[in-house]
Amino acid sequence: MATRGFVSHLDLNVAEPVASARFYELVLGHLGYRQHPIDEGRSRWTLEYADGALFEIEVRPPAVPSGSDRHERYEPGVDHLAFHADSRSDVDALYQKLIAAGHPVAEPPREYEYTPGYYAVAFDDPSGIRLEVVHDPTTNP
Ligand SMILES: [Zn+2]
């Protein structure tokens, strides 16, 4: 049976494609994605859903010039993007990799009161897109 309703792909226009490709390889590589470099400015990662369908993330330069090189999460558009982790130690391990790479982390790992056991780290990509990696036992036991 084909996958229906899950996200198919996400394309991100980024101000610093090379730095962003390195950054996303650190984050998505940690989460089990496979990188498929396209050319110097574009990269694609894929992750397989349980039934074999693919979710793809592509990072590429903007197609048109922008007034700003920085994404503003509270303006209209995407606020943040969150990925499942499989445990608290998975969240902590990514945090350690970000710190070791010298990448700033806006919200170090901690519990939140959204749901029982919700535990997350939050950080911005090089364009200012807020990412979160969360272990939420209520949605990912
Ligand atoms: Zn969130």
Give structural notes.
The strands form two sheets. This protein has a four-stranded mixed sheet with strand order 1-4-3-2, with helices on one face. Strands 5-8-7-6 form a four-stranded mixed sheet, with helices on one face. A hairpin with a 5-residue loop joins strand 3 (42-48) and strand 4 (54-60). The longest helix is centred in the first third of the chain and has 14 residues, at 17-30. The model has no long low-confidence stretch (mean pLDDT 93). With 141 residues, it is an alpha/beta fold. It has two domains: 6-62, Signal recognition particle alu RNA binding heterodimer, srp9/1 (2-Layer Sandwich), CATH 3.30.720.120; 80-141, 2,3-Dihydroxybiphenyl 1,2-Dioxygenase, domain 1 (Roll). It is built from two helices and eight strands. The protein is globular, with a radius of gyration of 15 Å. The structure holds zinc ion.
Give the strand content: 25-35%
Computed Rg: 15 Å
Number of helices: 2
Q: Which percent bin holds the helix content?
A: 10-25%
**Strands across the major sheet, in which order?**
1-4-3-2
Shape: globular
Q: What is the C-level CATH assignment of the largest domain? A: Alpha Beta
Structural class: alpha/beta
| Uncertain stretches of 5 or more adjacent residues | none
The CATH superfamily of the largest domain is 2,3-Dihydroxybiphenyl 1,2-Dioxygenase, domain 1
By CATH, the topology of the largest domain is 2,3-Dihydroxybiphenyl 1,2-Dioxygenase, domain 1
Distance between the termini: 24 Å
